[in-house]
Amino acid sequence: MKLTMYYTNRILTIALVIILWSCGGEKKQGTENEAPKERITDRLKNKVKQYSGDERLASINLPENFHISVFAEVPNARSMALSENGTLFVGNRGEDKVYAVKDTDNDGIADEKYVIAEGLSSPNGVAFKDGDLYVAEISRIIKFSDIENNLANPPAHEVIYDEFPTDKSHGWKYIAFGPDGKLYVPVGAPCNICNPEKDIYASITRMNADGTEMEIYAEGIRNTVGFTWHPETRELYFTDNGRDMMGDSIPPCELNIATQKGQHFGYPFCHGGNIADPEFGSLRDCNEFKKPYRNLGPHVAPLGLKFYTADMFPAEYKNQIFIAEHGSWNRSEKIGYRIQMVSDTKKGKPSYETFIDGWLNESEQEAWGRPVDVIIDKEGAMLISDDKAGLIYRVVYKG
To answer: Rounded to the nearest 10 degrees, how much is the dihedral formed by the CA atoms of 165, 168, 174, 178?
Structure first.
């Protein structure tokens, strides 16, 4: 009996050593069509508390010396736009409101919140330019003039453009002003997979700030809910959500670059640069289309993204791309629910690795939060919106 217990204890000890050893491994990069494995924080070495406020943040894994806290509570927090004075505007998708929050005492926590508008149709997208707030609904763009001077008593909105389709499937919009001063507005495909008759679908459009001269800038894009511009080249980088119902592992979602007007990115004929669609792939060849800059995980639902151009984070993060992955909804094993980093490089294949995770409990297959958008504040901190938890987080470096 003693001998049996001795060997049992020895086996358990060896197993524990193996587990602890494996938890200290480096971050893994993803393959072409598969999401990278989740990074595992070595909690034995990480004695420093990396969060404050909401106790749910204890599950969040961050790189060493990074810290996360709750900046604001905003129901169904979606896309964000930040003014030069630090007012953060936040859109909704599942609700009907647009919010503004401010940190007036600079303690890293918003202490003022305003409802800018309500009764809107999925006002997901927000953009700020020359003192005015632009909001994207399903079929139109509206503007609130001189908004920062009227947060407590917002003016009536002005309709800038109201000729977008009324389809609710992929009808919510992310908007932003480009380096050319034009407002960029996507129009998603009105389906999972189809070949729409109207050119406006599955595209990114752009227009002047007053709504004139609307044109299609890029096409063959199933559904982008996030884009940004390279800080040096000024090229447009955007995420694209891959189609569903082709299995767990394909197709990948995508990070793309539009280098000029008129480029086609494959939908509905080709996915991930080289995967012919089973229904429409025979109509056109994959080589006809612009290839992805980097294929992301399958069904991870990449949304907002930004280049890190500030100085708070260590030098290796400068000009790297951070993407909010909202998370899969119909995969047999859920993935996503994290912030990924894609390297900005012109040499070889860009890396794809986890920067922050922990919103998804993998063993229970339940997520308490879903990242939507990222933005960098004037101090260099990263703000992250979460529509499931109804929170906006603030991530800082304390090295």
So the answer is: -10
Residue 15: pLDDT over 70? no
Burial group, residue 54, by CB count within 10 angstroms (0-12, 13-18, 19+): middle
Q: How far apart are CA 198 and CA 240, in angstroms?
A: 19
pLDDT of residue 212: 98
**Dihedral sign (CA 214, 219, 223, 225):** negative
Q: What percentage of the chain reaches a pLDDT higher than 90?
A: 85
pLDDT at 330 (0 to 100): 85
Say what the pTM is: 0.88
What value does the mean pLDDT take over residues 99-125? 97
Query: Nearest CA to 173 among 252, 259, 256, 81?
Result: 81
Residue 1 confidence (pLDDT): 37
Amino acid at 330: N
Residue whose token pair is 């389809």: 167
Rounded CA gap, 127 and 39, in Å?
A: 33
Cα Dmax for the chain: 86
* For residues 361-378, average pLDDT: 97
Q: Are 174 and 237 in contact (CB under 8 A)?
A: no
Compute the distance between CA of residue 222 and CA of residue 202 in angstroms, rounded to an integer.
5
pLDDT digits (tens, 9 = 90+) for 31-60: 444 444 444 344 333 447 899 989 999 999
The answer, yes or no, to whether residue 13 has pLDDT greater than 70, is: no
CA distance 87 to 151: 10
Cα torsion 300, 303, 304, 309 to 10°: value is: 40
For residues 114-138, one letter each, b for 16 or more C-beta atoms within 10 angstroms of the residue's C-beta and e for the rest, the string is bebbeebebbbbbbbeeebbbbbbb
Mean pLDDT, residues 154-164 taken together = 98
Q: Mean of the pLDDT values across residues 212-238?
A: 97
